[in-house]
Amino acid sequence: MVPAPRLVELVNERLEEFLADRASILRSIAVDLDPLSGFSERFLSGGKRFRARFCHLGWEAVRGRGDGSVDAGDEAGLAAVVSASAALEVFHAAALVHDDLIDHSDTRRGAPSAHRVFEGQHRDSGWSGDSADYGHGTAILLGDLLLGWSDELLDEGLASLGSFAAGRAARLEFNRMRTEVTAGQYLDILEERAWHARAETEQRARAERVVVYKSAKYSIEAPLAIGGAIAGASPGDLEALRAFGLPLGVAFQLRDDLLGVYGDPGVTGKPAGDDLREGKRTVLVAIARERMDPADRRRLDDLLGDPDLTAAQVADLQAAIRDARAVDAVEQLIDENTAKAMAALDAADLQPDAAAGLAELADAVTRRVS
């Protein structure tokens, strides 16, 4: 099995090669496009590569056990899964660029978000018009460019496979992921604005739906299925990977929700309580509202989503949510979903080394601090 550090090296090398090629295309059009290339290269140079690692382990978990139409253990199979893993990282970058724009986020990974970078470029250059408008428009186009590049990168990798069926199955999994996460992003926007028109009894279920489609499927379930499809996975194998990936993806996002309210800015690269200022209607918030008395619930509703929350107001909301025992409840949900994922992994008939790698990675994504 390819060790995780080596897989990350291969994905990084593939990204560097691909981005250098696309940068040369942009440069051939105009040197004015260099900032798009430069930002893409910087933004994709870091990250934890969780999606890439899940894609690779999905491949490792079932390779050599297909119907014989594809030998997923050869160099072509490895090249395909490396390109698919890199494509997932590019897709993720596109989603983050657009997500930061939608949420009006100033920072990402401890640095200015894309629209803020281009807003600063406009302002520092003394160009005409509004700097914020320029930054917003450029970030939209950059996100679109990255989306297109993720498709190109995936297709280049799948073209190396000897099996049309395996390549087609992987492409369909990627397409499904793209639809689901876009739908999930819309549902997230919808809940931030329409929550007050929904019945109180619906709040938590609607927040849970966002967790599933905006993050859980796209972060873990889909990468596993894409990797498995490249290996020529049987329907049963894919079902086993999904049974593990979906509850783990839910636990992954619930941890993210906690970090969005209580994370250390020096570690997360985002301001403290950023989700509170953005008005995220997360499962954490839904549970807190269920358990608060009417006065505290009204105060939470009044303050949540105010971009000008002071540090003292953020601390007040953090304490109120914790006092409502919502943090404990979410920690319990993380444990329950992780246990469900591990039970599915134990029951699955997967390659032992890959199963061990998945167990280790499951621990990393649910216990992370950033």
From TrEMBL:
CDD domains: Trans_IPPS_HT. Its cofactor is Mg(2+). InterPro entries: Isoprenoid_synthase_dom_sf, Polyprenyl_synt, Polyprenyl_synt_CS. Transmembrane segments: none annotated. It holds the Pfam family polyprenyl_synt. Belongs to the FPP/GGPP synthase family. This is Polyprenyl synthetase family protein. It comes from Agromyces indicus.
